Amino acid sequence: MAVGCVDFLPTGGRIFTSIPDLFFIPEFVFGGLVWMLVASAELVVFPNPLGWVMFVSVFCFVVTTLWFFIFLCGANQSGIWPSLDVGYHFVAVVFYLSASVILAYVTLLRATIQSLQGTSDGLKIYRLDIAAVVMSYVATLLYFIHAIFSAIRWKRS
User: Fold this and answer.
1) Which of 115, 129, 139, 153 is deepest in the core (most CB within 10 A)?
2) Helices 120-156 + 24-40 axis angle, to 10
């Protein structure tokens, strides 16, 4: 590769066939599911640690969408983009991992509260919480894989 020539990041439709960019779509899906499942829970206790979970899921969803369109339009061809790609995805991993741990802890606390109440609505919310925890950890894994492959691509550039 010639010095100053930056053609190692895919653009347009090639992002659907290249790793790590293939992970954009699953990141949208699982990140969006975390957002929706947490938002559908009705129990709010102050101080509410789920605010951080909502911030992470909405922030990563919006930035991943922006990132996706930047890659799709081909605006990612300057030399700084591989570093930014690695940096963003590692930040997303740290954010999602912290949010996943918090979400699992809140779900555990809600389980003990709802077992005392024994209502069917409590069981429904608990199941939504469990689904949100699973989706959150899957989103964390997807961002982690994307970050690793982005780091490999960055190292080769």
Assistant:
1) 139
2) 150
